[in-house]
Amino acid sequence: MGWPSHAVGGGRHDWATYLERGFVEPFRNALRGMPEVDAPVDDGGRTMLMEVLTFARGEPWLEIVNLLIGAGADVNRRVSGGRLVWDFAPTSNPRCVEIWRALIQSGLDVTTRGVKNETALMRVCSVYHGSGNYSSVEAIVRLLLDAGAEVNVVDQYQVSALQSAAGSGNIKAVKVLLKGGADPNLAATSRRSALFEAAVHGHADVVQALIQAGAQVDAVTLGSRLASYPAFTAGIVDVEGVTPLIAAAEGGHFQAVRQLADAGADVNRADASGFAPLMGAARTGHAKMAQFLLDRGARRDAVDASGRNAQKHAAEFQQLSEIAPLLKRTPGKADPV
């Protein structure tokens, strides 16, 4: 017998209103009338615990979660589509931490894999908060690691928890993961490394933390970029051999570029198409970055596979007025060899 989906006479059943508004006592009474706490609430097999977690925002919902757990709700239940209880759990506010704590203390298996072969740790680290406030995520990551979550495993896309946290700019989670044994170079030779993820998005604090943890600054990966300008006519091309420095330069992320170069990244290392960091800076029109790369020894005469140098890339992306003065060769001064 499942939870009733409609009230007598039509409309939503009362429990749906109780959940939305966090009414604890009415929900407690509704729960007493249910012979099976994990009875489905919809055709997909979602349990009431899963339903509650989708609404959970604070203290009342934590109490409802504890009511369900106390009544025997299975914290490791999987719906017919493959999603697990933890996939419904919130991460966006401090009270969410207590919800995760309750789930873990009730026997949540932190090693089980979700629909995309992800773990709860990967899912939590992949959350992006536009506000940049990741305090709750950091605390949940600590709980999961303390409960035995595996830190150096990947999902079906070969992405780890550290790579996800780095890409979302979650410096707090990155530091916790590194302290917990996360390998900063996991997948660095096949997929986008954590350092690449941080560099391409311009998360300078994450870049610095990963470098300090021993990340390979010149590790290459498959990247993508605009074939030419404008984007709507040129399209995107995939390119092998892209370094974090190339990605950061092309994204206009000067602080990340500086950190990578200071850590020894090769300013003249090009990808498989011959595209070098200076060309990326030229495309963005970032004169300060271009000057920095030139000062570090970038070759202004380097050309890519199509014969374009940095100046031509700047012209193509309508940035020549900013970049051209820097790319003019100083009389009597040759490029570094």
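the 2nd protein, sequnce then structure:
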Amino acid sequence: MSETPGSDTRDGQQNAGSVTGAQGIATAITEVSERATLLVREEIELAKTEVTEKLGKLAKGAVVAAAAGIFLVTALFFVLIGCAWLLFYELPIGNSLTYFWGFFAMALILVILGLLAGFIAARAVKKGSPPVPSMAIEEARKIRETVSAGADANPGMETSEQGDI
């Protein structure tokens, strides 16, 4: 049972190399895990920002739509008053026809403003809906494709790393 002094040293170096290799793999796995976690957090943050942006556009569209509704209701009010004056003047009670034309002109202006505001509101709502984080989804799809392409390109790497652990 005599051992040569060199054989003991060589076994020690192999064990040290094996431990260092295992630590390197563990470090790499930890680093990949941390980066994946960071990537997921950034994607979630991107999705939140994107949804917030789209909800802001929807809110803006709702405010403009409310303004359009107010214009149209006011226009209806003036049209009804104008019709009332027109009916009054069509009856054989009066001669002056100047009052109702002012009401109709004001109603026409309000209808044009209401239609313009409604058009702007429709465009804002179309831009903002549906509030889906499409940029974040696209980035996640690209990442998944990249990871799966990398795994397909190096199929032997997975098995050899698993064998070393």
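The helical segments are 5-90, 98-128, 134-153, 155-164. The mean pLDDT is 76.
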